[in-house]
Records
---
Amino acid sequence: MANKSNVLHSLMLIFITWRGSKRCCAMTVDPPEDLAVLDSGRLGQMQITWNPPGSLTKMTKCLPQYQLEYFNTYKNNWETLRTPMRTYSTQFDPSKDVHIRVYTILNGECTNNTMVMSKNCTETILKPPSTGVLDAEAEAFICVYHNMENLECSWTRSLKTPPSALQNLYFWHKSLDQAVECPSYLLSGGIRKGCNFPEKSLPEFTDIYFCVNGSSRDGPLKATFFSLQIQNQVKVTAPDKLHLQTSSDTELEFHWENPAGRLPAHCLEWEVRHRHVGADGKISLNHIHTEKPRLTLPFSNSSERNCFQVRSRLNSYCVDQSFWSDWSHETCHPDLENRESTLGPEMNFVSIYIYIAVVIIVILVVSLCVWAAVNMRKSGPQKKVDSLLPKLLTNNLTRRVSKIYSGKKICTDVVV
Ligand SMILES: *[C@@H]1O[C@H](CO)[C@@H](O)[C@H](O)[C@H]1NC(C)=O
Ligand SMILES: *[C@@H]1O[C@H](CO)[C@@H](O)[C@H](O)[C@H]1NC(C)=O
Ligand SMILES: *[C@@H]1O[C@H](CO)[C@@H](O)[C@H](O)[C@H]1NC(C)=O
Ligand SMILES: *[C@@H]1O[C@H](CO)[C@@H](O)[C@H](O)[C@H]1NC(C)=O
């Protein structure tokens, strides 16, 4: 791709030169002067400035334009643009060579309306500062945007990082005046290993630039730079509500839900891991890709077993890339084994105790009711319970007896 555009670019230049030389005789223009690159201290945000060539100052018939070419160290390609301005700002990885070229372009009355570009360019190459402990830069830098809620970036130390080193993470994006330090470092064994950004602290669809630098007793550590857009770093939480049932004798229906959050539902896709254990004990594994949170599968033999796990990510219609979530727990049909294993032996004991307690209470209540009913009949079956109760309460009866009668009241209600 880069080669193609380079070839195209050269062809265009040849064509322009040819047209220029044919129609505009010996018309030439000098390259710009005073090319300067100013580092604004925003993690590689550089302001490039230049002036028109001195030979052009007497020419007033047409305004010069400029062709700027620079090597984009984050995309690893040359970028070309044309501008009438004398300044341009862009982001470089300052730990790499910054390579810039500028040409002058004339087009208008002064050139008989033919475009003329300077044959030579003005160029500059900035070398990164060679200070710092060699090979002590941060490695394996990665950022994960968990469920589109909080962003977590982490890195590892290289083997040559001095043990006394203290690493820092700075970040910058175009809405910030200056680079800002990590709001909350993640520590591992007292050493900074990452940074956590709370919800909504970084904008989506915006280039964010990160720098990990540091200091040590042996001197400063070499800084490393990274650039990303956070919506391309999403790792969804695994689906957690799995429902598996037979819809008929021949079909198995599986559907699931992702945990509620701010993920747009139309951006999700899933992968289902289907483990099939045949009647003969033979296991086969199958992965199914789906854009809807449900699947219907044929199933034939009741002595077979189907188990499913599912994971999720954002699809390529919504973001350039995303991470797969972890796998969900497994759900099976028939799910007998599953239930036993998830409840565990302790849970089973606890539920047995609860059943026994409930049965004892029921037996006690029923026998009390029966006893109370028999007593009532003896003392006078015509009397209503409601009229009997206040009398009993006014008498100097023990609390125990009143309790029994209130129990009786409930029993007659139930019987009637
Ligand atoms: C522009 O073209 C005209 C005729 O085609 C020619 O006489 C004139 O010298 C040209 N001007 C320049 C600046 O080349
Ligand atoms: C372009 O640069 C080369 C060498 O760098 C020089 O010999 C040549 O004269 C320059 N051409 C112009 C038009 O300035
Ligand atoms: C790390 O980078 C930040 C931002 O450019 C800067 O302010 C800080 O002084 C640097 N720290 C070290 C130890 O180089
Ligand atoms: C299921 O498979 C077993 C062994 O393959 C077979 O004996 C049984 O008849 C099958 N049952 C049904 C309902 O197809």
Note: Residues 20-25, 338-345, 381-416 have pLDDT under 50 and may be disordered.
---
Amino acid sequence: MTEPDPSKTTSKSIAFELGLIVAAGLVVTGVVVWWVTADRDRSLEPSGPTPARSNAAKTEHQALVESLVGDRACRECHPGECALHSRSGHSKTLRIGAAHNPVAKLSGAKFNDPEQKGVVWAYSVQGDKLTVERIENGKSDTFPIDFAFGSGHSGVTFVSVHMPTGRLGESVDLEHRVSYYANRKNFGITPGQEKGEKAEGLTPAGRVLPGDEVKSCFGCHTTINSTRGQEIVDSATMIPGIGCERCHGPGSEHIRLARAGKISIDQGDDRPRTTAAEEMLLCGQCHRHPDVISSKEIVAENAKIVRFQPVGLMQSKCYVKSDGNLRCSTCHDPHARASTNTLEYEQTCLSCHAGGDDKSKACSIEPKPINGCVRCHMPKRDAMHGLMYTDHWIRVRREAGDAAKAAYAAPSSPRSAAPIEPAKSIKKATVDPAIRSFFARMK
Ligand code: HEC
Ligand code: HEC
Ligand code: HEC
Ligand code: HEC
Ligand code: HEC
Ligand code: HEC
Ligand code: HEC
């Protein structure tokens, strides 16, 4: 830590002296006892960069922050995208405090831990916060839930930050042991924490996130982590969820130009667009790009990469051989929830695979199918806990029988600890500096 924050030290030591507002005795690797207090400082300070670098980063981040206008400012001129986006997983993927639906409705719920005998997890809302009690033999430890990750479409994982360990000045971030699985409307063990997992930092209450990992969680689930810099997580100034400007960059200049009549609505279909490769980098920031995966992992049998859609898609001949005509937005509206209408996607397959030209071929089985393409060539696979993900590595699958099923066995939770940057401008909405902006091109 380069600049110790005095306010933080104070709040921590006050909490320490007042004793424990909520006492939590919990053995971490045999020795450390956590004392969870209600008035923790919820901002995480950087531990890495040198002062010079962090000052530079601050100015750049400051400029970014100042030109952000927020999703609501786009509504006036782009009501369609805004309406779709407000219902999407992107906009709802992180909740602060967790006293909102769907999380708040977990209040009163109890869950018997399937692996820790006699342990019950009890959820209740206290103040503006969902809290969970871990009850074992009449002894109870309480954990306030600071953040809920996941829109509730599939899984919701709780994270508590800055929990004092009981050693003065030491605190940890905790990924809770128990997650909520919306797909089966029940709680379950968080992926990667089940019996037999060898992840570092596993405790009876959850996984202590090593080093900066918690910052990377936020990096992929917020628009910005705080106004003070991406390396600081601060719930007071964070913009949770993936807003318009995370993908398109800050909007103030665009809106200024639009109001000045300098953006023509009538640009026709030939206005320059982001290329497929650029889109892979944009979406791949969070959905993972082959650049951040070891090439050894990129094999068809590795079920772990099923969740990494750009990685899979970019292995497909459809992507490689279609001259940049296939990208995520060919099949998905990036503003909306993924459609569950398979026939819609299959219309897209057929737009290239109707046969008849030499570029793309029709399906080679007889009689020639007119649908079912997704089921046979892009099936859903169990990535964990019955969470089914679509395998975006479009290919011919000859696997059959139990051996093939075993090859598709559940992986552990794929989560990169790499720091994730938000869009500094639309230009930098992607990880590749060469990428041109949506807005810049319209000037
Ligand atoms: C005052 C009106 C106005 C506001 C507010 C506005 N835009 Fe636009 N925007 C336009 C116009 C006009 C165009 C060009 C016509 C079109 O593509 O719809 C445009 C086009 C775009 C495009 C397409 C660019 C391209 O090359 O295809 C994106 C992306 C975009 N706006 C994003 C945003 C975002 C994000 C916000 C909020 C931060 C926003 N706009 C706010 C007027 C506005
Ligand atoms: C590299 C970016 C990235 C990082 C880092 C990351 N996530 Fe995610 N997360 C995603 C994406 C993308 C999804 C969308 C679902 C998918 O395709 O895996 C997602 C989905 C989720 C979901 C929804 C449930 C599900 O499994 O679909 C939860 C909960 C979640 N993440 C929690 C976390 C937590 C907690 C951390 C930190 C320990 C974390 N994520 C780190 C990108 C990331
Ligand atoms: C996950 C990234 C992402 C987010 C978040 C996002 N967009 Fe987009 N947006 C895209 C991509 C990619 C395209 C290009 C899609 C295409 O070419 O079909 C696009 C296209 C657009 C366009 C041009 C549409 C057209 O038909 O040319 C507008 C306008 C737009 N977005 C506005 C918004 C607004 C407003 C928001 C927030 C409510 C938003 N976007 C959020 C990725 C995103
Ligand atoms: C800043 C990180 C980030 C970026 C960039 C990003 N995503 Fe996502 N995406 C996520 C997370 C996190 C989720 C999980 C949302 C949830 O909790 O349900 C997600 C979910 C999705 C879903 C499932 C949505 C649903 O509700 O059914 C689709 C489809 C998707 N993303 C497509 C894209 C595409 C296409 C792009 C690029 C244009 C993109 N994403 C860029 C982080 C990101
Ligand atoms: C933008 C055009 C395009 C779209 C859309 C598209 N493909 Fe393809 N696909 C191609 C091209 C080009 C090839 C390579 C053909 C060749 O080998 O010359 C290909 C190859 C294939 C192959 C053979 C793969 C192999 O490894 O031999 C399959 C199977 C396939 N596509 C299925 C699909 C399915 C299913 C969909 C829809 C989910 C789809 N494609 C969407 C263009 C496309
Ligand atoms: C050829 C069509 C196609 C392309 C291209 C495509 N997807 Fe998908 N995607 C699908 C289908 C089909 C589904 C399954 C939808 C359903 O029925 O739930 C899906 C589902 C998803 C989901 C929801 C979770 C899941 O795995 O079921 C996410 C997230 C997603 N896609 C992200 C992406 C991203 C990111 C890209 C670009 C790298 C992309 N997709 C490109 C067809 C496509
Ligand atoms: C019942 C499963 C099934 C369905 C449904 C199906 N396919 Fe196939 N497809 C296969 C198999 C198996 C092969 C490989 C056949 C062989 O070469 O032995 C194949 C091959 C292909 C190829 C490679 C052709 C070549 O000459 O290399 C393409 C392209 C393709 N399918 C596209 C599609 C599209 C598009 C659809 C939907 C209209 C579709 N498939 C529906 C099972 C299926």
Note: The first strand starts at residue 27 and ends at 28.
---
Amino acid sequence: MGWKVASLLVIVMLAVALYVNYDCSRQQLATLQSQLQAKESENLLLKGDVNSLEMRNAMLEQQNAVLEEQLAYARASYVELAEQNKKTVAENLQLKTENALLQSKYSRKKEKKYELIYKGKEREKNIFVNVPAIPLQEIKTFRKNVELINAQWANMLIYGDNLSVLKTLMTNTDVKGKIRLIYIDPPFSTNHEFRYGDSRVSTISYSLKDEVAYEDLITGQEYLEFLRKRLILARELLADDGSIYLHIDWRKGHYLKVLMDEIFGEEHFINDIARVKCNPKNFPRRAYGNIKDMILFYSKTDKYIWNESLEPYTEEEIRRLFPKIDKNGRRYTTNPLHAPGETKNGSTGQPWRGLLPPKGRHWRYPPDVLEELDRNGLIEWSSTGNPRKKIYADDYIKKMKKRQDIWWDFKDPLYPKYPTEKNLEMLKMIIKTSSNNNDIVLDFFSGSGTTLLAAEHLGRRWIGIDISIAAIEVSLKRILQLPHYRPFVLYNAVGKPLPEALQKLVKRQNS
Ligand SMILES: C[S@@+](CC[C@H](N)C(=O)[O-])C[C@H]1O[C@@H](n2cnc3c(N)ncnc32)[C@H](O)[C@@H]1O
């Protein structure tokens, strides 16, 4: 029984132990299960994390792709920019060089802020290079036996195109930079032929039978360039204290003003003179009658020869300024005897003959001078006893007046020896004003030689150039007719023999 109980007990105990074990295992299983569950939910969470990481990763990859694309683009742009930069640096260098060139040009010509632009306007530099010089062939020296003006000098009359002749003169050290005065009266671009011959009666009346003295057929921009080139060369011949007068008219004068500003500098422009060329005429043009032309006057530098030019009062001015006539027929006017400003202590503030000067004024003269003026009949007393000083026209006009920029008294000659011949007295006046004795005067469109004659008359040296054989012939005749003239040389600069008529004229003259 004992073993049975014991067995049973063992069995019970085993059962209990088994049960306890089972329970334990169940609990363990539950724990494991809950652990598993926890792991699973953890796993789920991790999966979510992985998902979001994967999404982020995808996003980042996308961003990366974009960035790489941008980088590639930036790389390409960099190459392009580097290329551009290279170009810019080169351009910059080029601009700097141009700028330096411009600056040096600008510093040479500070004044050139604007200019006239036209087709075919050559660069100054090229003009000096391209214009050919021409040899001056000596034809004859007139008055050879008379002592030369100075050891090196004889006046020059040159037959030829002034462009090449001016270039040649630039190589003559007696001429370059030594010309004190240039006067030119070029063709005015009229598109006319100017004739001369025995039938002429005035500047504008010529028969078609007459010979052509010169043609004035260059027009438009060609005309401007024709003159500009010559003016540029002429500037080199002008002395630093020299000046130039360009006679021109309404057709091209305003363009030439601008060109002259360019060539000689606007700051060296002195006058635009209106020269009255003729009396009023009944011109057929539908326009106001044209009785004036213009003379543009420039200096080479600020220091230029200037001998003040005075001119007499005109009859009309005398009548206007001196309206009264005294009992002897003398013209006079009267001025107040007092002047502005009070003098408290001096004698001119005191009463004279019981009269005080008006308030705020004083007598122009002390009492003793007033007495003397009255004794000499130089005071006019009004009916109310007011004294005024008499000024007589004949005393006053002796003083002459400063010449103004309208020239009334140098009209074209009525009986010219050459078409468009200018007034000899006008040339004398210009030469007196802008040169001194023995200075060199140049006229490179010298025509009938009016400038040369005036210069000869005033003891100046001269150079005349003309391309017209008629002009040379008339000039020669005019100079050779002078009772006295100094030695001069006739040159041929056309590169072919002188025409026969001129050769004969030259031969006839004793040298
Ligand atoms: C208006 S006239 C000069 C008149 C002159 N002032 C006078 O009192 O007789 C112009 C002159 O320029 C001359 N001429 C025109 N072109 C020339 C040139 N290229 N070279 C030299 N003279 C020229 C003409 O032959 C003409 O005699």
Note: The chain has three domains: 1-108, 127-309+415-508, 315-350+361-399.
---
Amino acid sequence: MIIDCHGHYTTAPKPLQDYREAQLNHLKDANAINAIPLPTISDDEIRESLEGAQLKLQRERGADLTIFSPRASAMAHHIGDANVSRRWTEVCNDLIQRVVALYPSNFVGVCQLPQSPASPPADSVRELERCVKELGFIGCNLNPDPSGGHWTSPPLTDRAWYPIYEKMVELDVPAMVHVSSSCNACFHATGAHYINADTTAFMQFIQGDLFKDFPTLRMIIPHGGGAVPYHWGRYRGLAQDMKRPPLPEHVLKNVFFDTCVYHQPGIDLLLKVIPVDNILFGSEMVGAVRGIDPETGQYYDDTKRYIDASSLSAADKQKIFEGNARRVFPRLDAKLTGR
Ligand SMILES: [Zn+2]
């Protein structure tokens, strides 16, 4: 089976965006924010939004199941206050749950968290618990920079984040470390902010001792790990200079990378540098890069093609396509085993 660990509802029906626009028009007025009616979206609108997009591409490209979360760039935790973020997050997560209910064989849910720059991460614990226990979700997206490109939060290894990690461990769910849109003009969202954040998170994990405190905590760094695989020698060398343990024991029991790298040489490098047990198949479709590569005639984000074309053994490919995802997402494994 082919499990795509990284998909967002980028094609959600318009009433969702209308709800967000209503929020944006009343950011300073809590009473007005609280009075915005929930978006009305029919099952048919949901089907229509997926049939010509994610479901069509799943079928065409040969994936079976997508681990599906709200649109990452729209999380925009920097907009409004904690109340705005909480209401937006609940609406987005509830919509993912409806997608999963309509297509339980094609999608499984991962939540966004109601983070906000001025709120402690502990304030997101309740929504994580709701999504896992009540909505049946199997993981969360954790934004290391709710300020949207200004990096006002402490590093992910800081104790301020620990309440979320304690709940993740208790629920046995991983997090994908995933920023949202950028309100800093220096950083293009998907071209710079995303890749910066992936790289930044990995360096924070090297500097800290997070996985000593949480030996079973699991983090997925998306977009192929940002610059990390390409600069693996730098990170090994920095860890050595800083008297950190070797990376396999210091971080690789807990940190995983997806395959959202949009060309064959990039994937080949990822597969060569990062142990196969630490790589999960992902495409992030329909996502950041939607075009066709004129050099290959194929979609850039058709990442299954690159894994298929790699020199990995069939057993290693199976780990990347299925086995590793079932290990990193035990609640997914339980669902699939129970089918
Ligand atoms: Zn993403």
Note: The beta strands are 3-9, 65-70, 107-109, 140-142, 175-177, 219-221, 255-258, 279-280, 292-293, 298-299.
